[in-house]
Design a protein that fits this description.
2 strands; two-stranded antiparallel ribbon; globular; single chain; mainly alpha
Amino acid sequence: MPDFIVNNIIENRLKQSDCKVNGWIMDGFPETESQMNLLKALRIKPMCVFIFEQHLDECKRRLSNRRIDPATGMLYNLEIQPPSDEATSNRIIQQQEDMPDVVEKKFKLWEKQCPKIED
């Protein structure tokens, strides 16, 4: 999804009163320079940031086993949580974002952006 859409959604949500009072948790944001600039422009500095590291090979292995059922939206993992029936097994698909070449490209982008995000 383009940053201008993501940034607009995030900005509107962070301005709501419950976020101001209770705080918030974000997963996977910010990822890009534009997203980091949004937080700076809003003068938002998280109190705590967790960055979980994992090797590229492990990312590829885990994501290559992920499948989605287009009929129900349910996620499955062929290794640890496969579908329990044959009809679902025949219907599940691998999403483009879980393909090894896509995972590697996103991983390398993350490695490049991570020092800026930590800053």
